[in-house]
Amino acid sequence: MTATVSAPAARRGLVKGALGKRNIVPWLFLAPGLLLALVFKFWPMAKGIWLSFFHVRPFLGNEWIGLDNYTRVLTDHRFQESIGHTLILGIGQAVGAILLGFALALLLEGQARSLKFLRTAVFLPAVTATAVVGELWRLMYYPTSDGLLNSGLHFFGLGTVQFLDNPNIALYSTMVMGIWIWAPYNMVIFLAGLAGVDRSLYEAAAMDGVSLWQRLRHVTLPAIRPALMIVLTLATIRGLRVFTEVYVLTGGGPAGSTDVWMTRAYTLGFTRNDIGGASAASVVLLCVTLLLTVMVNHLRKRGEAR
Known about the structure:
This protein has 306 residues and is mainly alpha-helical. The protein has helices at 2-51, 68-75, 77-107, 113-127, 130-140, 148-155, 170-195, 199-208, 212-223, 225-240, 244-249, 261-271, 275-305; strands at residues 54-55, 63-64. α3 (77-107) runs antiparallel to α10 and α4 packs across α7 (170-195). The protein starts with a helix and ends with a helix.
């Protein structure tokens, strides 16, 4: 009697032990990445939020000032101007990169070997360091007739353009580089979405004699809506956090015409040593990014529910 009762209990013990080991193994693989994220991302983030409530004084002790840093940042006219620059640059880059990425995906969709090579070549800007790309574009924008773009303008009989030294066009010159960087990244996501489109829908549309625009509007776009929402979410986050492109090309100049929120926070923290103010500016950006991300996801879910 004892043997018949203990055998099932022993089997249950073995099953529980196997399940326990099976649950632990994934966490063992995740542990190095989670540890790195904790040390180099989440802990500095928590420390930045904490410092945003202090007047940071190295070697003298930090002084608690509550929300004064946030008030100072939000009422600073330079930060207020940088909001407009950030919105213009972010929206322009997002729209331009989405449209160009979608056009590239339509052109390079297929299984031919030549298309695979072209897709790889087109994707290179997205995997190249932004600082390197920025230096290349700075050389292309060189403000004399020796610059690549200005030499092309001279070939057509046009004058030299100060792409990065003219406050009226420096922001848009930076925008062009951002579109060039992120359009290939969007292209890959759109290609993944296009791969899932039912080809019979295209055949039915061709038999009905619909135009190219009607096919895009009524067949392609509804089918790739999930991919489009992913691209839109990523573009929203990138647009608010734009920094490297501006820092490498103009450093926020000329005369602050390309100063965005991140470059202002960087200047405040590392040029003026106002760590508390820079932390407050970063926390504000984090909150706005989270809010917009939640809004985009809410719109995505509403669209899927229809």
